[in-house]
Specification:
Layout lengths: L1 H8 L3 H7 L7 H16 L12 E5 L4 E5 L4 H7 L1 H4 L3 H14 L6 H15 L16 H10 L5 H21 L10 H15 L5 H17 L6 H5 L6 E4 L2 E9 L12 H4 E8 L1 H13 L15 H6 L13 H19 L6 H4 L13
Antiparallel strand pairs: 1-2, 3-4, 4-5
Helix pairs in contact: 3-6, 8-9, 11-14, 11-16
Length: 367
């Protein structure tokens, strides 16, 4: 079954490449995933009759398991429909499309958990997510789904993303006995090599600015352990030179490893710490600052500006998109993987193997 599934899944890469040119799923995605569903059904991976069924039966030859889409329609309409701009049936089709895209990438249990996590989070209003305690088995996959889902309210999308990323961080911190599997050093070196090759090639300014947050994340976290939020909160004036040495100023979470109370204030929840960096990294950050100097600043004066992200897709920055967010960074990472790692340099390995090269040491899969 594993070989059959792998062979069938190879055709799905075409869909990933289509998505790599977008920052979200759309109606064409649903149409194509319905076709993929029928292909999988013909190969006895799905045993139910239709994409539209409320219960899917997925078969891995070891056992047959059900994925149930009995999401509360009332809760969705009350808590999420205004934010997404999608009617309930559309939302469910996007959820199903995401699961079809993930066949061959995620194990059956994870696919089931995504559907179950949706049922749990839908019951909580978006503006109350931080106040309610809910169980989410795999918030990282839930975040990936919401990242690709079209939203009418980008601010609500960001609230969900921040909450889910905090859930990911909490899961990591709470792991005391379970050891997470690290990828091999060859994977790290390979990705670092590909990144350097690409970065030293003849990039357009648009490409350079769009992928710079990925480049800086990789290089910076190689020397400084950094949480995604700490990274996104880098101050605009984060670099300085002193006695021919180069330094970066970073906001570090005061609550990490402690029992302090959250103040919901950046200046109180984070403190500025200085770290030495290389001259090359200093010059790259300085170049980014100079190239983005004319773009709109935000209230907390963070390093990253949002215009380069949206202009990459030939879109105008939304008025509410003041900050470079988890969603933006996740999008850039996904596009770098498919457009650069896979398409430009031909590293075409199934994601459940390859995605670990963004792995534990850098926690980039939890952005």
């Amino acid at each position: 079954m594993a070989e059959k599934l792998q062979a069938i899944v190879k055709s799905s890469w075409n869909m990933f490449e289509v998505l790599s040119d977008k920052s979200y799923m759309d109606s064409d995605t649903i149409k194509e995933m319905k076709i993929k569903f029928d292909e999988y059904r013909k190969n006895n991976i799905f045993l139910n009759h239709s994409f539209e069924d409320e219960r899917w039966i997925i078969n891995d030859e070891y056992q047959k398991r059900g994925i149930y889409f009995n999401v509360s329609k009332d809760s969705y309409r009350l808590n999420y429909q205004k934010a997404t701009g999608l009617v309930f049936d559309e939302f469910i089709r996007y959820l199903k499309s995401y699961l079809v895209m993930s066949i061959g990438d995620l194990v059956v249990t994870t696919l089931i958990n995504i559907a179950n996590d949706i049922k749990n989070i839908i019951n909580i209003p978006i503006n109350m997510l931080n106040e309610k305690k809910i169980y989410l088995a795999i918030p990282v996959q839930l975040n990936n789904f919401f990242e690709l889902l079209p939203f009418a309210d980008e601010n609500a999308k960001e609230q969900i993303s921040v909450y889910l990323c905090e859930c990911c961080d909490e899961k990591i911190l709470n792991q005391t006995t379970d050891k997470r599997e690290l990828c091999d050093f060859y994977s790290y070196f390979r990705f670092d090599h590909v990144l350097d090759l690409y970065w030293n090639s003849n990039l357009s300014e648009k490409e350079w600015l769009f992928y710079f947050p990925i480049y800086l994340w990789w290089k910076l976290t190689a020397i400084i352990p950094t949480r995604p939020r700490e990274y996104l909160l880098l101050p605009r004036d984060c670099i300085y030179r002193e006695n021919n040495n180069y330094y970066i100023k970073m906001r570090k979470n005061n609550l990490k490893g402690g029992n302090g109370k959250v103040k919901y204030n950046i200046n109180e929840d984070y403190s500025i710490r200085n770290f030495p960096i290389t001259k090359i990294l200093y010059e790259e950050i300085l170049k980014y600052i100079e190239l983005t100097d004319s773009f709109e600043d935000n209230e907390i004066h963070t390093l990253f500006r949002t215009e380069p992200h949206y202009s990459f897709f030939e879109k105008k920055k939304l008025k509410m998109s003041r900050y470079y967010t988890y969603v933006n960074l996740n999008c850039a990472l996904r596009l770098f993987y498919y457009n650069v790692v896979m398409k430009k340099y031909g590293i075409n390995i199934l994601r459940n193997k390859e995605k670990s090269l963004f792995g534990d040491k850098k926690s980039i899969q939890y952005i």
